[in-house]
Every structure is written in structure tokens, then in C-alpha cells.
Request: fold
Amino acid sequence: MSGAPSTVSELPLKRIPPHGAPVLPRLLAGVHSVGAMTLTEHLSVHGPMSPVYGGRRRRDRAHAAMLMDEIERSGLLGRGGAAFPTATKLRAVAAGRGRAVVVANGAEGEPASLKDRTLLEMTPHLVLDGAVIAAEAVGADELIVCACETAGISVQSVERAIEERAAHPISVRSPQIHLRAVPGHYVAGQESALVNYLGGGPAKPMSTPPLPFEQGIGRRPTLIDNVETLAHVALIARHGALWFRQLGTPTQPGSALVTLSGPVADPGVYEIEHGASLSSLIDAAGGATMGLRGALLGGYAGAWIGREWLAGVALSGEHLAAHGASLGAGVVLLLSDRACPVAETARVARWMAGQSVRQCGPCINGLDSLARTLEQIAAGSAEAGATRRIEHLASLTARRGACGHPDGAVNLILSALDAFDADFAEHARHGACDRCACSPELPLPDREVSHQRSRGAVV
Amino acid sequence: MSHRVRVNPIACEAHGMCAELLPERITLDEWGYPIVDLTPIEDWELEHARRAARACPTFALLVARERRARP
Amino acid sequence: MTVPVAAAGSSSYWYLTRSTGAVALLLLSFALALGVVDVQRWSTPRWPRFVVDSLHRNVALLALVFLVLHILTSILDSFAPIAPIDAVVPFVGSYRPFWLGLGAVAFDLIVAVILASLLRARMGYSAWRAIHWTTYASWPIALLHGFGTGSDASKTWLQVLSAICMTMVLAMVLARVIADWPENIRVRGAALGGTGAFSLLLLLWLPSGPLGPEWARRSGTPASLLPHSHTNTAKSRR
Reply:
């Protein structure tokens, strides 16, 4: 598979060259090319952690309120894919009944995303700082860090970081930090699936309401934030909302991690500011090594952008929305012009169908039928009106499951029909094209859905 | 006070009784799973909706009272 | 030698217990058959799903009514010494303890199933389903109870009724097992094997068991109730 990053430790980490004052990197400041930053290094690069009081007294709650106000002023949006305003989520959890729980979500089931395991492996203390501060803001007394069980290096890195902190005054008044390795299938990192798993069940979504922020693990209000979001929280608490807003766009401020893969010289995890152009990202990665057919933004629940738009695309929510896309969990997958987008889409659709945890009929049946129809189109054996059939199936599949998995797959498929309509029409008329025979490009690892219950509830 | 009908997709096992008892709101897709009209139901439909919910063998059909929007 | 037929009059409870027992068996068989129709989702425009489901539930409740009558009349009857406790605690009675006890076991299971269905909303689906599966056990136990305790095994009407029930249940169970073959093949295979073994053993046992000689004595009828034509200690039914 060309261009697909395999293990994190093979990746060189780069930064977008700063213009004027060095403003990047932020999250990736001080990281080594291999191995985690120690606590001492972390504190010397980022400065001392902002104080936490860890209590429920009036003074402590006033401090928590200040933290929340600062995060709200920063305009930080969640970095797990949904881009939900972080402060809103914090307030909702803080207002819940019962003592809150904080979960740092590093499950990262998206195959083409490596940013979360990168953070956990390279700069775990930044994530842990953010998690502790978030716990302070919502009054939580439990903190659980979730890492993907297949990313062994990042699991070990977090373990060591927790041990380092336990022996250090930084941990005074911080809640105890638990580490859980969670299964690697696609949907395992979905919020209710995580709550299910951490509560002793399998990593499968649960029916909502109630949502985790109201009643999550052990029926307690549960804050689930992506590890990158928490890393930003740690920096905002230190340097303030105004500092945070110096980068990015007014509606999507700050920096972000993106995983760039595909035919570029140096694929990997990059830190950009929101609004940076896709071209500048590709340049920072050493430029494209082949002609490009398109880009998949946001991962396998995201959307395709065809080659004609690539030059002008800026990586921010509002700009991408005009193309029907979003950054999602910071995934940018480039497709070379040697690949067949129809065949690739069919492969992804089949993979997404296989990643269904098979709890809801419309997801099981819809994704399977969609994959089958796409495979027929790719092979040239589809019936007339196959495209209309896909649109019909899409309407039957989306928004009828317990989680967003079928919606994401439908989003991807419909965007492919739109971005590559010429290729789809060609396939409908003439069958498989000569590019179909080329080796597949998009990374689709063998990830069996785990139906196993976890060993026991942490909380 | 308005009500809505919805399906818990995890509990649903495509028994199909809901579509028989509340055809005004529920039709079945090609796999036997319910497609529900999620708009608020009329008052006269409420009794039928409740009967349909009782008939569901897995309690997948729910009749929910409209929640007041949070300020 | 045949067991003398019970006379009418003071033994009307005995008639009732036998007849309600037979009807209960018929209704239980019918309820099981409807349960299979229900779970297999067989329906027609004239017999929609909700009708099949309601019918299944109502026939089961009706079976329970007849079952309760069957138990009450057997307790009230003065011929066989059946105490109220024998209805729920198996194998402690003095009248054909084993065969009567099977009836208590079947009754306990059926009550549990019906209670679970009434309390469904509080129970959680998997727990309810697990309890409901015991119906596949309670039916053969009830059948054996009927053959073992009944005094009408040699009667044509009961033989025909039993044959109808057994055929209906066997056909439905086979349909259920074969329908989605080979899904869950271990469970289906075990069910097929169990059904086959039970049917075979039953057919082999019947001629030498209830249809055989002196079944009343062999099944545990208290000696004082057995007819001895040459003694006057036998309690005879008038």
C-alpha cells in the first residue's frame, strides 16, 4: 500500500514552517522523533501545569467556573471528529447529577488516523494535564485514559507517564488516573461504546437517551473528550484563550493535528493551524510523489474531494463544508491518479460494512447492500439504475442505527458518487477499468469487531 | 402535550407488529425494519401508538412525551 | 388386567381433573405451535403478526386456567391422596410420586414463564428470553406426566388427542430447528438430537409403560387404592 503509515515510530514528525513569529508547533512542541517526553522535559517545554484544587468547596468550584469560561472564550471544538464545542460539553457534565467521570478517548478506531496514538506516545503528559484540568472543571473524581489495545507503544507510554506523575507533586489533588486498553475496531471509540466497555460490557454502542454526559459510566455524568482536545485544554489553561485564538479561523480557532497519508514524500502526523491550505500541507510533507485523483477528508466516515478542487481547499470546517466535507478527526487521505476511485470506494464500503457491530438491522442490511451494489458497479456487473439504487439504499440506511456508523459510510459513498461521477458512469457502461487492476491504496486493516465484554468496570 | 413515536434500533428485531398496528406512522423497509415518521403524533393516534408499543415483543417501539427544550 | 373405570357421582372431580388435564395439554401444545409461528414471523394478510402474537399469549393464558382447574380438582378429589403442596413441590406426594412430580415441575416452569412475561418490562430482554426457552422443556415433562399419572392411557380418545399434540409439537419444533439451518448449528444440532432421542425413547417406552400391564401398581399408586378382587381391603370407587 503506497503512502500508508504503518507504525508511529517510523514516522518523522514535522511542523508547518512558521511565518513570522514561531507559532507552531504547539501540541508537538519539544517532541522527540522516538520516545516520550519525560515529565521534566514536558514541564520545561510547556511550563508548570495550571493549579488544580480537586475539591468541591466554593473556592474550588469558582476556579472550575473560571476554567470553563476560559475554554469557552477559546472557542475550542472537539477533535474527535464531531467538532462539538468543548465548553458546552464541560458545562453539561458539570451540571449533571452525581460525581462526574472523565474519559480521555484515545481509542482511534479510524485506520488512517494516527494522531491520537502519536500524542499518547510522544507527549502523554500534555494529554494527562488536560484530562486533570477537565476533571477539575467538571468536578470529577475519576479519570480514565483509553488507548487502542493494538497501539502497544502508546499504551506503555501512558503507563510510564502515570507512574512518573504519581511520584511527583503534580499529582497532589489530582484524581487517580486509570489506563484502559480498548479494542481496535472502528466503532469502539464511539462515546456510548466506550461507556459500555468501561462499564464492563462489550465495546458496542448503546441506545440513547440518556447520553453519556448525563448518565454514562455507572450512571454518572461522563465527560468523553478526544485526547487531542484535552491536550489543547492543557495549553489553554496555561496560556489563555487569546493565545489560543492567535492561530486558526474565527469559527475554528487554534491548531490541529492531521494525519496525512497517500502518495507524498513524508506521510505522517502534522500540526497545522485551522484554515491552512491543503497545498501547503502537501508541500510540508515533501510534495506529492504522483498525480492526485482526489482526497478523502475526515476518514472513512468523511467525504471525497475531486482533483479539480484540491488546489483551492483550505483545511477548516467552514471552507470544507462548502464541499460537503469536514476534517473529522484530522484525516487527509490522498488518492493517486493510478488508483480507481470506484474500486477503492467499493472496498471501503465493504470494510465499513464489516465493521458494523451488527446491532441494528438497517446498518447490517443497508451497508451490506450498499457494498454489494458498489462492488457490482466496480466489476461492471451492475444492473441499470444502480446509482439510483445506491441513493435509495442510502436513504434507508442513514440515521436509522443506534450510532453514526451507517451515516458515516453513507456520507462517504454519496460523496464518491458526486466527486467521481464520470468514473462511476464509465464503469456502468464499460465495466472494470484498467486502473482497477492496480494494487489498492486506501489502508483497510484486518480489524475484527470484538464482541467480548471487558474484564470489569473500572468505576 | 405532544408525543412522538420512535424505535430503539438495537432492541428492534423486525417483528413487524408496529407497522400493522400503526400504519399511519410506521412502514417497513425491504428488510422488515420499521421506518418511523418522527413528527409529533395527533391526539387520536396516541392510543394506537401505545397499543403498538405494548405489542412489540422486544419493547423496541417507544412513545415519548415531548421534552421541554432546555433553556 | 385393566384398572376399573371410575364410577360417576362422588368422583366427578376425578373426571374433571382428567378432562381439564387433557385440555390443558392440548392448549399447551397449541400455544407452543403458535409460539413457533410467532418467532418464525409466519403471517398472512388475514392472520397478521399482531394477531398471531396475541393468540399465542391468550392461548397460553387459557392453558394456565385449565391447568389450575386440573390441579384444584385433583386436590379436591378424594380418591387419590394429592395434597396442595404436591402441585408445586415435586416428588413428595404419595400418589405416583414420580409421575405426579413431573406435573409439578411442568407447572412450576409454566408459572415462571407466565410471570416473566407479565413482568417483562422490568426484566430485560435476555433474562425474559432465557426463561421463555424453558417452555421447550415443560411440554415434554407435562406429556410424560400425563402418560404416567393418567388412568386413560388405553382410551382411544386420549391416544388420539396425544397423537395430535405430539405430531403438532414435533412438526413445529422441527420447523423451528430447520428454518435457519445452519445458523447456530451447535444449538440446532443439539435440539434436533434431543428431539429425536426423546421421541424415539417415548415410543419405545409407551407399550411397556403406561400401555403395559399393571401400570397403576408400577407407577406408584398406593397399594390401598389398587383393585384386589380377592381382598376386601381395597377402597373401591362408588
User: Anything to note?
Assistant: Chain B has one domain: 3-61. Chain B has two helices and four strands. Residues 45-55 of chain B form the longest helix (11 residues). Helices of chain B lie at 17-21, 45-55.
